[in-house]
Write a structure and sequence with these properties.
This protein is of the alpha/beta class. It folds into two domains: about 150 residues, Vaccinia Virus protein VP39 (Rossmann fold), CATH 3.40.50.150; about 80 residues, Adenine-specific Methyltransferase, Domain 2 (Adenine-specific Methyltransferase, domain 2). The chain has ten helices and nine strands. The strands form two sheets. It has a seven-stranded mixed sheet with strand order 3-2-1-4-7-9-8. Helix 3 crosses helix 6 and helix 3 crosses helix 7.
Length: about 270
Amino acid sequence: MKKQRAFLKWAGGKYELVDTIKQYLPEGDQLIEPFVGAGSVFLNTNYKSYILADINNDLIELFNLLKTNPDQFINDLKLLFNSQNNNSDAYYQLRDVFNASQDQYLRSLLFVYLNRHCYNGLCRYNNSGLFNVPFGRYNTIYFPEKELYFFAEKAQTAKFICAPYQDVMKKAKRNSVIYCDPPYLSANEATGFTAYYSNNFGFEEHKRLSQLAEKIAYKNDIPVLVSNHYTDYTKTLYNKAYYLHRTEIRRSISCAGEGRKKIDEILALYKKP
């Protein structure tokens, strides 16, 4: 099966790692993703049903609108993707419209526009909840029409919810499988992409997540797979996992402007032996 790309750019997206992830995802009837992001794992697996969640309400509303009315949404979105809107003045005007709007349909359209035109496809909000990523300055902008339609079709098997990961993981039943892709701890353990949306995902939150994964897997017999950077801390953090796999991935989004570089990642599988 040909790998499917998400229609959104996403920091920490799993497109490059999805074949490896699939090797360690157990079989089941339903896949639950509490940190769905752009949805690369969802798009490239074949479970009967999905529960896909995120704490970013803009993301979940976008997915629900695309699922419900793909033709109109994609046609309306296409109007924003033109050469006149690929400049800094237009970008900042449309970013202001997004930040001021309470209309979820308009916000969803603009969310995709901002994602494809902003710097490195980052999704970042300030403390007031305003999207604040600067203009990306791309010569050409790709309109992801076929990726949008593929997502909309596959979304018919999915339920999208905006909720904290703890609530989402507790929805798992027998024959469910959980895949967690939280905001990563940094490779040097000092800094990193731990702030996302209005939430801060630091050391304590990662510890709570690992404890919940352990409980759900070993007490409820529901397997949980977790991704993170490979560090001394994460090796210790996931030491009660059934299996740890170390892999290397080339990352293309870098705030430090370092471009693509190889990073070691860890996959921790919790399941009963």
